[in-house]
Write the structure tokens for this entry.
Amino acid sequence: MRISAYTRLTRTQKTATIGLTAAAGIAALTAGIAPGAAAGGDSGRSPAKPVAGHSVSADASSGKKAAEASKGDHATGDKSVQLAGASAGHQTKAYQGQKAKAAAQAQAEQKSQAKAEAKTKAEQKNKAAEARTDQSASRSAERPSKSENVDGWINEARAIMKEKGIPGSHEGIKKNIMRESGGDPNAVNDWDINAKKGTPSKGLLQTIQPTFDAYHVDGTKDSVTDPVANIVAACNYAADKYGSMDNVNSAY
């Protein structure tokens, strides 16, 4: 069996040997990473190259910074987009508000215009109605009333009666006219005994055709419904039968 030299050493020698070996290793490591000129070593030795791990770490750091910068740029871009979107949304809301306001104003103007037109039409309608009323009143004022017509016919008839000597007062004649016909020169009685015989009473004083023909006075129209001719003929008949139309108080 072969015994090595290290085995034959004493404990003190082994300890010394281990210490020397460790010191030599540390010195060798120190000489490998230090610049040759500064350590006083071989001047022809090239400077120690940087450790690969350190280079990778630097590249990673640069990449990280670039990523953070890119991320910052992206965040800034996102923020710009968000601000632009918010601004566009605000502008859209403002435009919609202005549009709604304009529509409401246009609607209000249309209502106001319609109201003004309706008022104008109502005023025109009222003016037209007032004009018609005024025209009607004017025609009524120009046209004599029935009573005024009756008075005029009586006056005209009495002027003729005076020439012919036929008696009859204005009041007596008018009283019988209003009782017999109500002042209507075209009144016709189609229900009494004379109507049944075929000779209905006609005119202001309800004279039948045979009586009118018998007592008709020259200078008046030959028509039983002519107001003046009817009055004169009836008064001529009453004067012959009753002395005067004033004495007639009922149908005659």
